[in-house]
């Protein structure tokens, strides 16, 4: 991505060695990557043009969508997805070197809520009596454990964070399901596309859609717009509109380019049906998983 005069500034959920950092480094190895404390701060940095891109987690294979990312994109931002990366996620239990012989007596386990949830069974069967504490990221948990050598506590995160913050991994691969991948998306203020090498060449378009109010069969009609045009959907999900119980918006991923004629006509028909549709743009996926 580097050209000679300009280094892109890329926001990620820090600190260094988080999974978001690993995803960012895969896609932007030579750029100027900047750590932020929360996902909304990463998104705001793009909106306010403090950075050129943000890399944020969107969906995990075990835990499902990252609601904070999806809701913030719908309610608070007006950005495009310009690329995607799929990263294999391996969660390990790690402690401070000073506590390495006491690790079975840990008094607290710290991590990002998604990481804690990905290890739910392990934690339930192995450490059911130990309080779990949420941190802003897995790397933040590792950093905190490193800064508190006197406390008998553990973090859950990746091997890079153990190395970076000088922790000892005491149990490897504690996530409950072997297939554990996360989709991270690259956000931009502009509807461009990252030139992703080694993508599978399959364009994908993410739509955010609201149905006309109280209209029986509305979702069926929306799906038929895609179905008879043979536009393949890879995801559909509803999220609360936050205007009252029972009010939702839909996130729909279509395996097609938004500029294809079939897609243009689909947008027209959706509008004619009374839907509000917003395309977050077409992008390609980089597969960093093994
Ligand atoms: O906490 C991190 O390291 C993140 O980047 C967020 C996250 C957490 C768990 C799985 C994937 C991403």
From TrEMBL:
Residues 9-189 form the Prephenate dehydratase domain. GO terms for cellular component: cytoplasm. The record marks 182 as: Essential for prephenate dehydratase activity. InterPro entries: ACT-like_dom_sf, ACT_dom, Chor_mutase/pphenate_deHydtase, Preph_deHydtase, Preph_deHydtase_CS. The keyword Lyase applies. Keywords: Amino-acid biosynthesis, Aromatic amino acid biosynthesis, Lyase, Phenylalanine biosynthesis. Residues 207-287 form the ACT domain. PANTHER family: PREPHENATE DEHYDRATASE P PROTEIN, PREPHENATE DEHYDRATASE-RELATED. This is Prephenate dehydratase. It comes from Ureibacillus terrenus.
